[in-house]
Amino acid sequence: MSHPVSANRYYVPEPSYWPLVGSFALLLLASGAVLTMNSIANGGFLLAGGFAVLAVMLFGWFGRVIGESEAGSYNPQVDRSFRWSMSWFIFSEVMFFAAFFGALFYVRVLSVPEIASLDQAALWDGFKDQWPTAGPAAKDMFTPMHAWGIPAVNTLLLLSSGVTLTWAHWGLLANKRQQLIIGLALTIVLGLVFISLQAYEYFEAYSHLNLKMTTGVYGSTFYMLTGFHGFHVTLGATMLIVILLRSVKGHFTAERHFAFEAVAWYWHFVDVVWLGLFIVVYWL
Amino acid sequence: MQATHTAGAADHHADHGPQPTGLMRWITTTNHKDIGTMYLWFSFVMFLVGGAMSLIIRAELLSPGLQYVQPEFYNQMLTLHALIMVFGAIMPAFVGFANWMIPLMIGAPDMAFARMNNWSFWLLPPAAILLTASIFVPGGAAGTGWTLYPPLSIQMGMGMDMAIFAIHILGMSSIMGSINIITTILNMRTPGMDLMKMPLFCWTWLVTAFLLIASMPILAGAVTMLLTDRHFGTSFFSAAGGGDPVLFQHIFWFFGHPEVYIIALPAFGVVSHVIPAFSRKQLFGYASMVYAIAAIGLISFFVWAHHMYVTGIPLTGQLYFMYATMLIAIPTGVKVFNWVTTMWRGSLSFETPMLFALGFLVLFTIGGLTGLVLAMTAVDIQLQDTYYVVAHFHYVMVAGALFSAYAGLYYWLPKWTGHMYNESLGKLHFWLSMIFFNIAFFPQHFLGLAGMPRRIPDYAQQFADFNMISTIGSFGFGFSQLLVLVVVFQTMKGGAKAEARPWDGARGLEWTVPSPAPHHTFEDPPAFNPAEAHG
Amino acid sequence: MAEVSNNNRDLNRGWRVSAGLVVASLISALSGTANAAWELNLQEPVTALAKRVYDLHSLLLWVIVIIFVGVFAVVAWSIVFHRKSRGHKAADFHDNTKVEIAWTIVPTLILIAIAVPATTTLVEMRDSSQPDLTIKATGYQWKWGYEYLSGDAAGLKYMSVMSTPRDQIENKAPKGEHYLLEVDRPLVVPVGQKVRMLLTASDVIHNWSVPAFAVKTDAVPGFLRDTWFRAEKEGTYRGQCSELCGKDHGFMPVVVEVVSAEKYAAWTAGQKKEMAAAADDPAKIWKLDELVARGEKVYAANCAACHQPAGQGLPPAFPALDGSKIVKGPKEAHLDIVIKGKAGTAMAAYGGQLGDTDIAAVVAYERNAWSNKLGELVQPAEVKARRGN
Ligand code: HEA
Ligand code: HEA
Ligand code: CUA
Ligand SMILES: [Cu+2]
Q1: ipTM
Q2: Over the stretch B130-178, which tens digit does the pLDDT of each residue have?
Q3: What is the value of pTM for the model shown?
Q4: Is B306 a catalytic residue?
Q5: A37, B158: Cβ pair inside 8 Å?
Q6: How far is the alpha carbon of A183 from chain B, nearest alpha carbon, in Å?
Q7: Which residues of chain C neighbour A119 with C-beta distances below 8 Å?
Q8: Beta-sheet pairing, C253-259 with C187-190
Q9: What's the CATH superfamily of B28-530?
């Protein structure tokens, strides 16, 4: 696939059209989303087309990277680059979540108490400073999500998935392929169960608790944080599946398996975010 | 601005297989120089588009009364002008410089992730398409100002959604670009070049990339919440649901303030190369420069609410943010003093890059000093949302960032094209820019002091005279910029042959490769030569 | 008279601008300071606080000018004497810890020095306690609503809308002296009294600002914010909404009339009487043409900015009412959108701004104006009944 590179030279990839395909996919996605959100016909087709092109691009691009990796194009310096980049990528995700956690902090500590304060009584009479709240204009009652039901189970699931993943890593390091594959499979199963429970929780919230996205700031922050996290779990699970398939194919060695580690870092990151979520969204 | 391949570069190709040609070369390229070139061209085109919008704004403001555009359209031009200038023109220009120069400066064969680098660039056109196309959709583009404050932004039509997605895509591009730059700087310096010997431009980009990675996701979060408030019934920014419109402002400026240093820092970097080169003297105070850059980057995260003095934040907040903002003047002052001392007892000559660097120094300092006036909360109460602010930020962004980009352009153009540019045209460009810029923006200080609000398409009559001067200056400034095109095309086509080191005072690895720089450079790390080092 | 002088001004300006271009804007600006139009500094303060802000700004201006001159004197020296073309050879130094420490510490000291007056001024600025008079101002797209909460005028409530005619804005008529800075009913306050302004908004963020008082505070929907002033001189003071609030943000002036205690008392009494006279009898049964005539006024004052005087709107942002399905459809839906507005759009809830009679009138007007000749009307009682829904 790629031409031989002397071992101490940094690998610079061949020209590639995948970036352009990716950009095109995002243009489709964005246009489709805009049209759909404004209820304009055919937005859905564009949106679907965007996803399809994006999938093709990811498949093609990552396929290419995997090929290069297996062909041994990446010297240790390239490997270091990958490590740096994954760390910074995760940092950017941390900041993305920080925006939403920050919003939750702000409404709980600042805006809700302010709206309920005496200064604002002329506008919002009788509104009490409490959490959860749907805001001073809310009419419907709703039931907040309890921490010690499904969320607690989900916490256990994610925590144990971290353990199984580490166990799989030990397997890889000790060249026990069986342990690697079983560990990965278990992790994936735990992740999928987590996602299903989360979906069930949403269903319950909508159908029985009257807890919706439109339920004031509580609903807003609840769905934004758990939803964004759920999306990350889904991504993580997908990446784990790719890693599992590659492991089954015999990729990775005890010495060189950056892709595995990157996904593991990502999974642990998602895990830690959940802990934060469990504490500030469900528990406190 | 990349010249065609020279014979010297051709033999390098032997071990690179067949390369796509024509349009495909640019679409598929993984070469940092090609990508840098594309960034620079893109940025210049966006500068013309954003500039054309500013001319619509200025034309409307030529005299009182509504003459050419309706207020709604004025607001849309205002918003797009700012978004396009900031995200489409200035930021990509400096990413272009980073792509071209960082590998050359640190002796790396390319960027750490050459393919992703290409994607970072190719994400820009879709975002630009979304932004500009939004003018033509029902309801028009977002007319909220670039700050996108709700609830006004909740009222907007689908043009707002297009702006939101454009921002998401621009954010992806910036984050990937920044990861690339950080990784390249941290991992690909030639052996022997430790961080404190690294060229300052790389230092400014290292910190800038960090600011980008930390702040762009915050903006993405803010506009995502805006999107859900608009379409999915959430109430982050609505008091009726327990949220707060001011929350958006906090999140926006937590991004927005670092953003202005994202624009300024690479400009500082370029100037830190140009001034020593034309003073024929080493940069004064390298170490303190590095600390100052780091300090500016760090403090920039803790001053955001100086844009929100009038929103009703508590007194303690106002005081804290005032003090924190004042702090930034100290490291920035250190930089200014270092540049000045670099020139002191040098052997100065005034080619175009140096002229622009000096223009930067004078005008940026004016902009910085008016920033300090704005930082004083009690005074800012008078000046917030007036033309004084507009004057302040055009001094730091146009005369600061843009002038410094021109300094870099003229400084490195010989390296990129292999030819010397036309010095008289370059000087003409500088003097026209310098004079017209001041005619356009200096009077805005007076307008602001006298109380003319910003973001209005029409104004009371006592503001008429200065506005007319400002408009005349703006048109003069705008049309002077077309000279750059002439200079660049001429230089690409021909002109005196440039030597490897066309400036006798220039130091750094980039001057050790031939001009034009071959397509592939430093495939094996060059030996580190302390005489070229900066520390 | 105003017209003539205005034209002269225009002519003058053309001349002066050409001159200005020759000698660069700054110099010409200074030479023209005699004319108010060449204002170079903050507006003349009329409160003690504004005076302090003025002085603080002057202090800062001196500080930054001195710093600027100091720094660039050095630069100028280098440019003149350390040129290559004069044969100056570059010295070889690139570090000096002592100097570097000095120029970190000196600016720090300067900053501390200016932080002191900046802090005390600010602290005073935020002390809105113990006012003599409290007034609530509500920002609407695009007008101010004032409500006197205390004092003699307590209970007085009215809208303050820009009164510059459209023709002047569109350059079809010569511009008046207070072009864009005039309103139909200014805020009236007594001189020498501490006036506390409570600010809020009904739709988007606006900003209530009067430069002569050094007052500028956001009016945020859903929140009350406050600011205060104590005007020391009678007169009319003008400011503008200072937060982008949509299409007519530029046409939302703030005008405050500061009057003597006697005049204030007289004004209050007059307003009260007028208010009592104008109070509508909620039970009154209106006739069609009477109500429509009143509705036309309400429409012009409240609705025409978006839906346009001829009802054609500015689609797609602002729908046409001429021929609109809602306007020509059942009364209930029509009343609902006017009373409750539509969330997420610029269509505000007018239930809180307009009384029953005004709403009835404007709805009746819309249903009978332009091509919507429905011939039916709505009575105030029906509006009242609809409010609960
Ligand atoms: C490149 C971009 C850039 C840069 C570098 C800066 C630099 C600074 N800015 Fe500016 N700013 C903007 C871009 C920038 N700004 C923009 C875009 C806006 C408006 C956004 C909007 O609302 O749309 C804005 C608005 C803005 C405001 C809000 C105004 C308002 O809306 O009411 C404030 C208030 O504090 C401020 C302050 C400062 C300060 C203190 C600095 C400092 O960093 C300046 C430091 C530099 C110096 C001080 C000069 C050199 C120093 C010396 C010579 C040493 C000696 C000096 C002393 C001892 C004083 N800026
Ligand atoms: C780095 C960013 C940047 C740059 C470079 C500029 C450049 C310019 N800006 Fe802008 N500006 C902003 C960032 C920038 N601006 C921001 C952030 C705002 C705030 C927006 C808000 O309030 O939300 C703003 C707002 C702003 C206003 C305030 C409007 C208002 O508040 O109502 C004005 C008014 O004078 C203005 C003018 C100009 C002018 C004359 C230039 C000139 O320097 C431009 C010169 C360049 C040209 C004129 C291009 C030359 C091209 C041609 C002559 C030919 C055209 C041809 C083709 C398209 C093929 N800008
Ligand atoms: Cu109201 Cu601007
Ligand atoms: Cu700032």
Answers
A1: 0.90
A2: 999 999 998 889 999 999 999 999 999 899 999 999 999 999 999 999 9
A3: 0.91
A4: yes
A5: yes
A6: 31
A7: 224
A8: parallel
A9: Cytochrome c oxidase-like, subunit I domain (1.20.210.10)
